Structure formats: structure tokens, C-alpha cells
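Example with several molecule types.
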Amino acid sequence: MSRRAWGAAFGLLLAYLAAQWVFFAARGLRPGSFLVFGLERGDWGLVLGFLLSAGLLGVLLRGRLDGTDAWRLVFWTAAVLEMGAYTWGLGAELAGRVEPRPAFGAVFVPGGWRYVLAGYAAAVLALFVYSWAVIKVGNRLSGRRRPVGPLFGQALTHLFLWTLVVLVYYPVLQVVSASFDPRNNLFSFRRVHSAWLLVRAKVLPSFANVSWDNYAKLVNGVVIYPWQWALLALALALLLAALGLAAAARRRGGEALGVWRGRALFGFAAALFVLVVFLGPAQFTGIGTESKFLLWVRNTLLVSGSSGLLAIALTATAGYAFARFDFPGRYPTLLTFIFVQMFPGFLALVAIYYLLSWLDLLNTFTGLLLAYSGGIISFGSWVYKGYVESLGRSLEEAAYIDGATRWQAFTRIVLPLSAPMFVFIFLLQFVGTYSEFIMANLVLTGVDKWTVGLGLYSFTTGQFSTKWGLFAAASVLGSLPILLIFYGFQQYFVSGYTAGALKE
Amino acid sequence: MYRHPAGLRGFLTAIALLGGALVSSFLLGAAAFVALERVAVAVGRSGGLPGWWILITTTLFLLPLLFFLARTFPFLSDWYYLLPAIVFLLVFTVYPIILTVYLAFTDYSGARNGLPDRATETAVTAISGRRITLAADPRQSLGCNKTCLGEKVELVADGKRARFTVTAQQGRTLELDRAPGFEPRYAYRVNVFHYIGLRNFAYIFKNAARALWPVFVWNVVFASFTVAATALLGLFLGVLLNNKDLKLRNLYRTLLIISWALPGVITIQMWVALLNKQFGAINRLLGLLGVYPIPWLLDPLWAKVSVLLVNLWLGFPYMMTATLGALSTIPDELYEAAKVDGATSLDAFQFITLPLLRAAFVPILLASFAFNFNNFNVIYLLTGGGPATEGRLSTAQATDILISWAYKTAFRAEGQSAYGLGAAISLVIFVLTVGISLVNFRVSGALREEGRR
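Resulting C-alpha cells for the full complex:
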């Protein structure tokens, strides 16, 4: 790299720093703001570090690099140093905003991170010794010469992954344990007496007083009629039967079992549907909003389930027409569908609010359902079109030869084959609307109409600290349907999702 | 069978026929609705009919019309497969978008919502032709701004109601634009909203330093940092778990996917308690490490960090799964061939895995960016946009992004329910979001259809 190029690089860097300084100075950022902090300490260190490292690299690599490589090197060095300076400045700023005083009544271990670090170092050492020993003994016995590296690497991977699993599950564990804590209060000063430090620090739950109080409060005063109990029992029995049949089919195979499993699942869905539809607000006689929790679950299931069904109804014919028909205007319409999809429906929330108030559909499930309907149409039609195209035309052509009309070919041949795709579209819309908040918050205003998310939001915005246990119990129960669906349909749910994202 | 008119002519014919059918049935439906409402009011339902009846009357006209159209133009039946989707898109996506554009230029708000103001109820004492006399001075009782000239009033009698415009005022007597056909008992002033031109946008840009710019910058930082962090962690985990020699890899995958499998609307709210400064579980854990209690949701800067961390927790399983899915499509033969050619595993990663992953990942990253750009739930449920920051509009605080700012402006008390202003902000977001989506389509080539026109 020529001297002129180096000069230009330095010139550029200086100009960049000057521009940055002018920018921040003009914005009048107060001293101590992390950007200025980074500029004051970080950037002068950056200039020095850049000079040093660039000079060092220049000496080391003289004559070995062509122009582009050198430029890339300059760019990356500058970028990395800049990032480092800002991260440092930001960290210092963040640390400055923490009061150096332990929380009242909490277990505080000064310098505890040193022990953790030492523990990890010991674990790494132990794993190394273990892999070394295993490999050496193995080599001695089998006479091969395998390196220690791979096994040690695997052991480290396991250590890392288990750490991550613990971190990811820590919040979940805390919520689940809080749901069994009868005190129902986030602001707990009470000390736990235990020999274990982690239990004393309330990082691990103590199982001294586990109770179902919070769950009992959620179902307090709920009147379930006998026929509903019977229907519930029937639904559960059908679900169990379906699971059993699935297991049996996996072991032995067989078409008949699969058909019966489908029927059992359908019966389960139908029973659940009747239960959900006929569970009314009048059956919730408990005091306090939390006793309506099951009603909120029912509302959510009703809205999400029917919007899933509506999504299938709206996308099936459209996707089929896009896939099979060839009329003038098919492709422009498809493009329009996809273009419309770029506008997320909830952005027009003011207009939807206006429209629904004009239609007198505020605070009704129908209004929310209609508001949700637009979101899935484009994507659902697109995905279903792809699915129908993958089916192949031969069956339909055979039907046409036998004198079937288009509608018959669609309803008798394509629809029955499309069940997997319909399940995917249904689940997509179901899971999506189950977690939807902004539109539901806008439309559903009465306590009796709330969905799970809205009900929980009323806990967090009100006296959250005194409803923490209730909130935890409600979140455990409210998460179950989605959790079961997700893990139950995981395989093709996940594959469909990611494939959809690829095409979206 | 039937034949379509060819080419553009066929397309336009179909559009014209369908559009004509939709428009005419809507007009007929609206007329029927008005007639039915008259009947309902006459029968004694003082509120008239609920507005959604117009959907039913329109459908009742549309169905026979479509039937006869299909008789006359058989090729139109192909379009009927698309019609439900098209109608729903038109009514609940396209129309709201157009309405948003319209509302953005009005002062539609909680105080100007187009409804009669019940607080201005004034008794009508006398009526003669177009003149009505009120029981009190209309300037005070109707709450007109100086003069009632040009204001809209609603007159109500038992089971009857209608709206009129005031054309003249004389003491307690108002002259209306037409004679009411009934004996009104009460008069209300209607809170009409007006077309105000670009004033909403002028407000947004005049206060840009207090809301638009900081919110926009944070919105971009939030979306891009979320995408970068989730993608890096997801890629790392995906590559780790793709190793066929790793034991328990399926278990790890199933375990780590948990935060995606739980409904976000619940988990985000659970983080509010976990991030409590004095009693939260996170600070309890950090206390064991010798970290002083961190003001996660109380300090503006820490609140941003919390939002990013929570979103990382929520988002990495998706990226991990996407990585695993993309990696599983890379054929093993490539790696074997590379091995035969003497490449190390690092070489294979650098020259096979990464380039192939990049192709699959660009659209995922862009879609994720577009999603997180409008990720209302994380912001609103975790911090509510707060904590408060000096020198900002009350609706645009430390962690507010554009969509939460629009929502709070339109529907929260601190924004005085300024629906029109909220619509204007939404319009700004529309433009940005469509820009991102266009880039996405461009890059991913989603619109290309192989083997067709």
C-alpha cells in the first residue's frame, strides 16, 4: 500500500472523528451521556490504538498485501475499535446508573462472580482431564491415535448449552414457583431459612409451603354444568384415544388406525368447540376480576379458533384459483395480494377503530374477528397456492375426464388432500391471534370480553405487586394451550414456519 | 366450457363487472339499511339499527347479483373463487388504509369524534318551520365557540333523530338548513371533525426533536440490534446443534425453543415482575454474583437494555430453528467433496456453510427486521414506552417506538385521544414499512413464479 493511500486513510479517519465531534457538540449532549463519554475517552484511545495497530500491521505485512486487502484491514480495525470504544463508554455509563447499595433484605455476595468464574474454570479443567483420560485410555486399549480435541470440544459445548438452558429457563422456573406460593406478593421481605445459599437467596424455590391457592382463586365461583363436565370428559377421552391410536399406528402401521385417529381428533375438536362456545359469562360468579380467568381463556380460544377457521375459508378457494386457473388478470391479482400484505393491518388501527365504531362492532368478538381477517389472507393464499401446485394435476384431470366440474374437482379431490396445509394455516392464525394484543386491547373493552393477554395486562397495570402469584398461576394456565399445540405439532409447524419465512 | 376474453381486455372486463356488482350492491344495501333504520326508529328502537346490518343487506343484494352475472358471463365464475378473499381484503385492509390517509388530514379526536355531545342536551321549547327555540342560550348550553352558526346539531324526539346545520341564530332561536319533519324535544351539538390539511404533519415535524427523531433513531437501533443479536446467537446455536456427533442435540433443540413456544403476550408481562429492581428474580440472581440491584425498568438507558435483552430471549429460538432448517438443506456430499480435496472443517465452514446460509438468511433477516420494526407488544407490555424522559412529548418516552407512539397518541389519555394525529404517525410508519418490504421482495425474489408469466 502506497504512502499516499495511508495518508488518505488517516485523513479520512480524522475527518470522520471531526465530523462526529461536531455532530455531538451541535446536539449539545450533556457530559456524561454515553456518546460523549465514548468520544472523550474512547475516541482518543481509538485514534492512538488505530495509529499503533495500523503501523504495526503495516510493518508486519509490508509487501504482502494488495490494495483492497489493506483497505479492508483499515476499515475493520477502525470499526472494531470504534465499537469497542462505544461499548466501553456505554458500559461505564450504565454502571454509573446503578446505585452501589444491595437491595434491602436480599442476599448479597460481594464479588460472587469470582466464585462463579472459578467454578467454571474448575469445570473446564475437570472436563479436560476427563476427556484426556478417556482418550488416552481408549487409545492405549484400541491402539489407535485419536486426538483429545474433539471430545473436549464436545464437553465444552455441553457445558455451554446447559448454562444456556439454565439461563433460558430461569424466568420460567421463577414464574412457575411463584404460582405455587400462597403469599401472592412480589414484595416479599420474608427470609427463607435453608442450608442452601441458592434457596436462601430465593433463586431456587423452597418447597416448604407449596399450595394451590392461586389456582383456586382463578376458578373461584365458576359454575360448570354437568353436561359440560361430561363433554369435557368425552373430549379428554377422545384426545387420549387419538394419542393412543397414534402411538399404535407408529408401532404397527396401518391405514385404518390413521383414519380412526383422525376421527378421534375431529371429535375432540368438535367437543372442545361446543364447550368453548357454550361457556357463558353467567357461569362466572366469583368476586374480583381474577375469577373470570377461565372466561378469558374461553374468549381467546373462541376468537383465535374462529379466526383460524375464517382464515381457511378465505384462503382455500383463493389459493386454489391462483394455483390452477389461468384467466387473464390472475398474476396481477396475485401481485396485488402480496402488495397489500406489506401494510400491516394494525398500523391502520385508527381507521379500524373508526370502521368498527361505525359498524357498532366495538367490544364484540365479531369485530375483532373481522379486524384479524385481513392479516392472513395474502400469506395464506400464497402458501396454499404453493401447496396445491405441489399436489400435481393428474388426479383432477382424471376427475375431469369422468365429467366432474371444477367445483367438484376442488371440493372432492383437492380439499381432502389439503388437510395438512389447512392445519398449518389454522395454527398460524391461531397462535398469532392468541398472542395478539394491540387490536384486542382496542376492540374489547368489557371485562367479560377480555382475552387472556388483556386480563393479564389488567394484573400488571393494577396492583401488580399484590397479584403476582395470581398472575403467575394465570400465565402458567394461559400458556398451556399454545405450549401443547407448539410441541404437539412441532415438526411441521416449525418447518412450515421457516419455509414460509423463506418465501414471505 | 367457457372462454375468457383474452388479455388485458378480459382482466378489465372482469374487474369492471365485479367492481360494478360490489359497488351497486353496496349502494343498494346502504339504501336498504337506511330504509330499515327508518322502520326500526318508527317501530320504537330509539338507537336505530346496529351499523353491521349494512354488511348483511349488502350481502343479500350481492349474492343474487353474482348469480345472474355468472349466468350472463360464465367466465366470471373463475373470479368467484377469489371473491371472498378480495372482499375481505378490500373492506378490512384496503379500506382502513385509505381511511387512515383520510383521517390523517382531519382533527378526529376524542373531543371531536363525530358523535352528538350528550353534555350539551338542551330542551326545545318551540318550533315553527325551519326555526326552533331552545330553553336556554344556545351559546352556553350547546357550547358553541362564540356563535352557533355553521355548527351541526342533532334533534331528538321519541324514536326519531336527525342532524341539521345551523344557518342563522337570533337569541335563543336557531334557524336550520331544512325543516325537521317531527316535533323535537332535545337538541345536541354534534362534535364534528374537520379537514385540517397538513396540520397533523406540521405538528409531527415541528415537534420532531421531541418525538419523531429520537423515537425513530431508537426504533431503528431496537430493530437492527434485535435482529443482529438474535441472528448471531441463533446462528451460533444452530451451527453447534447441527453437529451430528453431538449427543442430546434434539433434546437441546426442544428445550431451547421454549421461549418461542410460550405466548409472547404472557411472557413479556412476566418479565415486568422479574425485572423489578428490589424484588425481581433477575436482580436476586445478580445479587449472588455481587452485582448491585440494577434499575432495569426505572432508568431510561437500562430500560432500553432490558427491552433488547427480553427481545433476545424471545427471538433467538426462531433464528436457531431457521439456521437448523437452512443447514439441513445443504447436502452432505459438498462437505465430503471438500474433505476429499483436503479442506479443513474451518475451510468447509467458511466456503460452504456460510455462503449457503447467507442466501437463506437474507430474507429471514429482512422479514425479522420488518416485524421488529413494529414490535408493539415488547415495548408496550414491558415498559409501556417509559420511563419518562425530559424534553419529550408525553406520548413518546425513552423506549417508545413509532407504533407505540402512534397508539398512545391515538388511544391513551396522555395523547388526548388524538385519532387524527395518530393516523398521521401511522402514515409515516406505513411509508417506512413499505420501503423495508420492497427491499425484502427485491432481495428475496419472492414474487418470481417459475414457469408462469
